[in-house]
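Lab meeting, item 3. Inverse folding demo.
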C-alpha cells in the first residue's frame, strides 16, 4: 500500500485505458521485440508451433517474489512444461514473466500489440485490472466455451458466479482465499505478558485496555494502521464496498437496506473517525501512519502491539511473514462479493482466435487439475528451483524462478510448502464455503460515464478521508472536517458519481 502521486496516476491510468481500447480488435500480424523478462514473446496471432501439431498460446504473468525474473530460467520452465503437457493436451505455451513493479505498464503495452493470449490480472490491479479490461473490450467471453470443461468442473459453480460480469464469464479465478474478512492481530509475547483476554475483543473499542498497556510499555505504535485507511475493511459487515478500493470508500451498498449510500455521511463513519482521533490524542496511534512514513517491515519489528490482518485459511502463515508469533481474532465476518473471487485470476484476451481461446481453457483445465504441472508452473524445475521433502512438501530454493500459489494455480492442486499443513486444500475449501454472500455479489460498476469525477473524488479522499481514518485531525475537529470532506467531494462531482452508482445498481437489481 504505497503512497502514490494521484494526479500522475490518474493521468497514467487515463492514457493506459486509451491504449487498452485497441485490445478488442482482431489479432493482426505484428513484429515485436521480445520482453526483457523472457525471451519467449511472439505474436499472439501465431496459433500453431512450427510442426503444426499444437496450438501455441502466449501466457503473461506477474512475478511477486522476485524483483527481476531470470529469462533463461523462465525459458527452462516453459520448455519443461511443454514437454510434460505435449502428450496430454494439444497446446504449447510461450511464457513471459514480468516483475510486479513493471507489470501493469509492460503487460498493457503487450496487450495493445496483440502479444498475449492468457493474461494474469486481479481486481486490485491498475490499468489492466478486471474493472479496466471489461469496459475496454479487452477480454474474451468464455461463457459458452467453458461449460462442461475440466476447467469449469475444477471449481464449484459459486466461484464462477462470483466472477461474472453482466452474467458472462470473462475471468478464471485462482482458487485461493476467495472471500474477504479481517482480523485484529496481536503480538503473542504481549498477550502472554499482560494476560490479555483477546477473545473478548468484539469491536475496535474493546482494544483500548490493551492499547493503554502498550503505551505504558513505551511502544511507538500501540495500534499500527500500516498506513492504511481501514473504514472499508472494518465495516464490511454493514456495507459492501464494491469498488474494493479504500480511495473510493465514499460509496457502498448498505447490506440491510440493499441500497447505495454515501458512507461519509453515515453515523458509522463519524464513529470510526472519532475513535481514531481519540486514539491519536491518547498516544495509541502514531503520526507516522497518517504521514505514511511507517515502513512495510514495521510489522516485523517489536515496535507495535496490535494491528490488522486480512483473514486467510491458515493465519499462522503470518508468523513466518513477520518473524514473530502473532495471534488473530476475527474483526469481521467473511464475505463473498463481486471482487473477492477476482483477487487473482486469468483472462483470455479479446485478440485471441477461438482456437486459441479453447487452447487457453485446455491449458488452464490441466493446470487446475494436475499437481505436477501446477507445481512446475508455480515453483519451477524440481532439483533447481525447489525440492520435495520427506513428507512430499515443497521447499523453495531459487532466486531465479519463484511464485506463490495465490497467483499461480488452484490451492487444491499446488503442493503445500514445508511450513504449511499437508491438508491445506481442505482449509481453503472450508474457508470459502463458510462465507456470507453479499446482496451486491455480481454487481460491477462501470465508471466510464463519470470517470473524471470518480478520479477527482479519489484525490479528495487522499486529502481528507485518509487523514480522518488515521487520526490526523483533533477529535474536536472531526465533525467539521467530515463536513469539509463531503463538500470537497461534491465540488469534485461526487453527486454525479453517486447518482450513476445508484442508477446502475437499481438496473442490476431488476
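The presenter then showed the designed sequence:
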Amino acid at each position: 500500500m504505497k503512497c502514490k502521486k494521484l494526479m500522475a496516476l490518474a493521468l497514467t491510468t487515463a492514457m493506459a485505458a486509451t491504449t487498452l481500447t485497441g485490445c478488442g480488435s482482431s489479432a493482426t500480424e505484428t513484429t515485436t521485440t521480445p520482453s526483457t523478462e523472457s525471451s519467449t514473446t511472439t505474436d499472439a496471432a501465431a496459433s500453431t508451433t512450427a510442426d503444426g501439431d499444437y496450438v501455441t498460446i502466449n501466457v503473461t504473468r506477474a512475478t511477486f517474489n522476485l524483483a527481476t525474473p531470470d529469462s533463461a530460467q523462465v525459458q527452462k520452465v516453459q520448455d519443461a512444461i511443454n514437454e510434460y503437457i505435449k502428450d496430454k493436451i494439444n497446446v504449447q505455451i510461450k511464457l513471459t514473466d514480468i516483475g510486479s513493479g513493471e507489470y501493469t505498464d509492460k503487460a498493457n503495452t503487450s496487450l495493445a500489440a496483440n502479444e498475449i493470449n492468457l493474461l494474469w490480472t486481479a481486481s486490485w490491479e491498475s490499468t489492466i485490472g478486471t474493472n479496466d479490461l471489461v469496459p475496454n473490450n479487452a477480454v474474451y467471453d468464455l461463457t459458452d466455451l467453458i461449460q462442461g470443461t475440466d476447467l469449469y468442473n475444477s471449481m464449484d459453480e459459486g466461484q464462477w458466479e462470483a466472477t461474472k460480469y453482466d452474467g458472462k464469464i470473462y475471468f478464471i479465478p485462482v482458487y485461493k482465499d476467495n472471500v474477504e474478512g479481517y482480523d485484529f492481530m496481536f503480538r503473542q509475547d504481549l498477550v502472554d505478558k499482560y494476560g490479555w483476554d483477546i477473545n473478548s475483543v468484539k469491536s475496535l473499542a474493546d482494544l483500548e485496555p490493551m492499547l493503554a498497556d502498550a503505551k505504558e510499555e513505551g511502544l511507538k505504535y500501540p495500534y499500527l494502521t500500516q498506513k492504511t485507511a481501514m473504514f472499508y475493511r472494518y465495516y464490511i459487515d454493514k456495507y459492501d464496498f464494491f469498488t474494493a478500493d479504500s480511495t473510493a470508500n465514499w460509496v457502498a451498498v448498505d447490506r440491510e437496506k440493499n441500497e447505495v449510500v454515501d458512507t461519509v455521511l453515515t453515523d458509522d463513519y463519524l464513529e470510526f473517525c472519532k475513535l481514531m482521533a481519540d486514539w491519536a490524542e491518547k498516544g495509541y496511534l502514531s503520526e507516522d501512519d497518517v504521514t505514511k512514513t511507517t515502513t512495510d517491515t514495521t510489522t516485523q519489528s517489536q515496535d507495535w502491539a496490535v494491528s490488522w490482518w486480512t483473514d486467510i485459511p491458515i493465519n499462522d502463515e503470518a508468523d513466518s511473514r513477520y518473524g514473530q508469533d502473532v495471534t488473530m481474532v476475527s474483526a469481521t465476518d467473511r464475505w463473498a462479493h463481486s471482487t473477492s473471487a477476482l483477487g487473482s485470476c486469468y483472462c483470455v484476451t479479446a485478440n485471441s482466435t477461438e482456437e486459441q481461446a479453447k487452447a487457453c481453457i485446455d491449458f488452464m483445465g490441466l493446470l487446475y487439475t494436475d499437481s505436477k504441472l501446477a507445481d512446475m508452473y508455480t515453483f519451477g524445475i524440481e532439483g533447481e528451483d525447489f525440492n520435495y521433502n520427506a513428507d512430499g512438501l515443497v521447499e523453495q530454493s531459487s532466486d531465479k524462478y519463484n511464485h506463490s500459489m495465490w497467483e499461480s494455480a488452484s490451492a487444491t492442486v499446488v503442493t503445500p510448502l514445508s511450513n504449511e499443513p499437508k491438508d491445506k486444500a481442505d482449509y481453503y475449501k472450508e474457508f470459502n464455503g463458510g462465507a456470507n454472500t453479499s446482496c451486491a455479489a455480481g454487481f460491477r460498476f462501470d465508471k466510464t460515464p463519470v470517470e473524471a469525477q470518480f478520479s477527482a473524488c479519489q484525490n479528495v479522499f487522499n486529502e481528507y478521508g485518509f487523514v480522518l481514518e488515521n487520526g490526523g485531525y483533533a477529535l474536536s475537529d472531526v465533525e467539521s472536517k467530515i463536513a469539509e470532506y463531503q463538500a470537497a467531494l461534491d465540488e469534485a462531482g461526487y453527486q454525479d458519481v453517486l447518482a450513476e452508482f445508484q442508477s446502475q445498481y437499481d438496473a442490476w437489481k431488476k
